[in-house]
Amino acid sequence: MPSSLLHSGMLLVAGWLIALGASAQGRVSNVRMRALNQQSIEVLYDLRNSQPTDSVYMRLQRRNGKLIVPSRAYVSGDTGMRQTDGRDRRIVWNLRRNGYTLREELRALVFVKQLGLQGNPIIADVPEKRSKESRRRAAEPDTASVATRPYRGPGWALLSALAPGIGNIFVQTPRPKVGLRPLVTVAAYGLLIYGAGQQGEAAQAYENYTLSGSNDVGEPFYQQANTAHQRYYIATRAAAAIWVADIALTVLRGIKNQRPDKRGQAVSVNLSYQANVPVAVVRYSF
Question: What domain range includes position 167?
Answer without folding.
Answer: 154-259
